[in-house]
Write a structure and sequence with these properties.
It is a single chain. The chain is 24% helix and 21% strand. It is globular. Helix 1 runs antiparallel to helix 2 and helix 2 packs antiparallel against helix 3. The protein has one domain: Alpha-Beta Complex (Cathepsin B, Chain A). The protein is built from 5 helices and 7 strands. With 213 residues, the protein is of the alpha+beta class. Strand 3 and strand 4 form a beta hairpin.
Amino acid sequence: MKNILNYQSSEYDCGPVTMTNAVRYLFEREDIYPDIIKYIMLYCLDSYNEDGEVGKRGTSASAMMFLANWLNQFGKMKNFPISCEFISGEDVYINQTSKILCALQQGGAVILRLYLEVAHYVLLTGTDGENIYIFDPYYEEEDDPEFSEEYYEKGIRFINDQPKRANRLVSIEKLNRTTEGFYEMGPYDIREAVIMFNNTTRLLPEDTIDYFI
């Protein structure tokens, strides 16, 4: 059985929660090794803030790169059908031939760094051709008096009935922006993502839908 996806426990743990959500999204609960959850939490929350407090700048790109490599090796050692790729810079873009869009069309998941007032990790789980399905681990309630009006910008929609897949639908155009508004990826030099597959459910390119024909 697939799990519902999780929300953050603090202001800082979007990285490990999103990495774990990728595993929860791709694999059945009965198939997930406890080692995977243990080591995701162990290696994330590695960044220090200006006061030298560990974890209060969240999770670094180095930790995400390390975890992608660790999961690949774990998969080989345990014969567990997981594969990951860390990408950065100009590779982190969404268009017809991009690695991110191709991964989503093949049934993969993408851990993406973007902006939500500050740098933030979310999970990409699919596309309808113009928009991307996202699970944002930062819980918000639309009737909260502190709810930000930026969520109502064009290109952002809330989803409330897909707890195992998505809680936002964000336009590709907005995601691709080089500015730092809500759900924008920002400048290329700080972009990063981890592409993850369950190799037993990954679709071949000829089996995917081409939304851009």
